[in-house]
């Protein structure tokens, strides 16, 4: 079984390696560099074994059932030691690949992949000791938590280098300490014997809070890329679909292994429980970590919040009344289709030619991408009236975000808007709506 567990642990790690390859849209990293970082992360487990054997065992620092002792052990005996171990591969690759680690998202990617190597070895050990029933839960909770905690350390460096240049080594140490506390706090509730039976609930709630922080940290890194351009956006639909496909394979793997080691009845029962628990967590995690609003030089503050909102007695849904609805936070609009026309000439078609403001198809050019009040997305476009390159007027486009948003599942629909007194504090209601238009490529 150790071989099967190893393949599954490697595949879990690959899911998130591929995730970083999908969201690193400005200057992609070499897969070979990621593989080296991952292998060093795997080897970093030896650092933990060494500190446990030669330091903590000799001084008798371990769990003993005392609240304060076990909390300190979780933070310093587990959190600080493991974060230190995962930091070592990152430091090595930073100096080896220094010229290639040249934008904020790179720091998060490399330290996360070091964490994935560490987590992969840890997963094999847990699966081998406890059996395949842990696969789905650890594939999301433990894996993402390892990445987040290590990313806090990298985020301290990012803030120092790209934001305020204040604090120096003290700032880096404080972010390392924050990573250790975060790691230890998550583990403590499941390690402390008096909370072990229900502590997982606290840990899952905390996981969701850190998920919101992770999304903000990643978004800030992308916003402040050295190579930032509004021409590129993250295809959130592609990210979600690929990640859910990967996790579907993980669910199948756990089902097959439980069937093999136990029987079909236990496997069926387990898969239903996994869908209700791990499945929901996976869906929320994948969706939230696919939603980014890319605004150049924007830094959003970390705040304590869940990555979703819950509406009780929210109204009617397809098939009848819905007593509760869950909405994952983040920018849900997929800009992929309309952003393809950014800084490009295109044909602007009136959606309804019978009562059209434009009257006929116009050659147009999107000049600027704008985020106005409440971060509402607009595009500023030149709309030409003739072949004369000086014969144009400026209008604003706002992508349609609900109902039918594409024609032939390809061409985006947008509102054509006009405003006399433009300023950055405008919102949609301040514009004059002229008509719905369709954007098509210029042939």
UniProtKB/TrEMBL annotation:
<dbReference type="GO" id="GO:0008233">
    <property type="term" value="F:peptidase activity"/>
</dbReference>
<feature type="transmembrane region" description="Helical">
    <location>
        <begin position="6"/>
        <end position="22"/>
    </location>
</feature>
<feature type="transmembrane region" description="Helical">
    <location>
        <begin position="266"/>
        <end position="287"/>
    </location>
</feature>
<keyword id="KW-0472">Membrane</keyword>
<dbReference type="InterPro" id="IPR026898">
    <property type="entry name" value="PrsW"/>
</dbReference>
<feature type="transmembrane region" description="Helical">
    <location>
        <begin position="243"/>
        <end position="260"/>
    </location>
</feature>
<feature type="transmembrane region" description="Helical">
    <location>
        <begin position="308"/>
        <end position="326"/>
    </location>
</feature>
<feature type="transmembrane region" description="Helical">
    <location>
        <begin position="198"/>
        <end position="222"/>
    </location>
</feature>
<feature type="transmembrane region" description="Helical">
    <location>
        <begin position="71"/>
        <end position="95"/>
    </location>
</feature>
<feature type="transmembrane region" description="Helical">
    <location>
        <begin position="139"/>
        <end position="158"/>
    </location>
</feature>
<feature type="transmembrane region" description="Helical">
    <location>
        <begin position="107"/>
        <end position="127"/>
    </location>
</feature>
<keyword id="KW-1133">Transmembrane helix</keyword>
<feature type="transmembrane region" description="Helical">
    <location>
        <begin position="170"/>
        <end position="192"/>
    </location>
</feature>
<feature type="transmembrane region" description="Helical">
    <location>
        <begin position="34"/>
        <end position="51"/>
    </location>
</feature>
<dbReference type="Pfam" id="PF13367">
    <property type="entry name" value="PrsW-protease"/>
</dbReference>
<keyword id="KW-0812">Transmembrane</keyword>
<protein>
    <submittedName>
        <fullName>Membrane proteinase PrsW, cleaves anti-sigma factor RsiW, M82 family</fullName>
    </submittedName>
</protein>
């Amino acid at each position: 079984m150790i071989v099967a567990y190893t393949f599954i642990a490697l595949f879990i790690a690959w899911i998130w390696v591929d995730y970083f390859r999908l969201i690193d849209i400005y200057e992609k990293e070499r897969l070979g560099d990621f593989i080296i970082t991952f292998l060093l992360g795997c080897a970093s487990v030896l650092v933990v074994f060494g500190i446990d054997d030669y330091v903590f065992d000799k001084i008798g620092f371990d769990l003993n059932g005392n609240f304060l002792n076990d909390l300190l052990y979780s933070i310093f005996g587990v959190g600080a030691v493991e974060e230190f171990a995962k930091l070592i591969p990152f430091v090595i690759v930073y100096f080896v690949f220094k010229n290639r680690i040249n934008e904020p998202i790179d720091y998060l990617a490399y330290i996360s992949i070091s964490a994935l190597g560490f987590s992969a070895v840890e997963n094999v050990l847990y699966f081998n000791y406890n059996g395949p029933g842990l696969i789905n839960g650890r594939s999301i909770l433990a894996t993402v938590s390892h990445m987040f905690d290590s990313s806090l350390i990298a985020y301290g460096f990012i803030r120092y280098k790209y934001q305020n240049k204040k604090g120096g080594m003290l700032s880096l140490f404080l972010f390392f300490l924050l990573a250790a506390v975060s790691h230890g706090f998550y583990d403590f509730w499941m390690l402390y014997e008096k909370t072990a039976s229900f502590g997982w609930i606290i840990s899952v709630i905390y996981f969701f809070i850190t998920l919101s922080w992770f999304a903000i940290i990643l978004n800030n890194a992308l916003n402040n890329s050295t190579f930032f351009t509004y021409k590129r956006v993250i295809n959130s639909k592609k990210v979600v679909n690929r990640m859910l496909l990967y996790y579907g394979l993980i669910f199948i793997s756990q089902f097959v292994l439980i069937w093999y080691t136990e029987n079909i009845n236990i496997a069926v029962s387990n898969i239903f429980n996994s869908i209700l628990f791990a499945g929901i967590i996976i869906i929320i995690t994948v969706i939230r970590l696919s939603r980014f609003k890319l605004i150049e030089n924007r830094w959003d503050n970390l705040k304590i919040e869940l990555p979703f909102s819950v509406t009780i007695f929210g109204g009617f849904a397809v098939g009848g009344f819905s007593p509760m609805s869950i909405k994952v936070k983040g920018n849900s609009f997929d800009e992929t289709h309309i952003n393809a026309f950014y800084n490009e000439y295109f044909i602007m078609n009136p959606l309804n030619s019978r009562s059209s403001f434009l009257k006929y198809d116009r050659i147009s050019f999107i000049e600027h991408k704008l985020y106005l009040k409440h971060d509402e997305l607009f595009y500023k476009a030149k709309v030409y009236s003739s072949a004369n390159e000086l014969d144009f007027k400026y209008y604003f486009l706002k992508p349609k975000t609900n109902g039918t948003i594409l024609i032939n599942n390809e061409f985006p629909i947008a509102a054509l808007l006009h405003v006399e007194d433009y300023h950055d504090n405008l919102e949609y209601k301040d514009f004059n709506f002229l008509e719905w238009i369709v954007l098509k490529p210029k042939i």
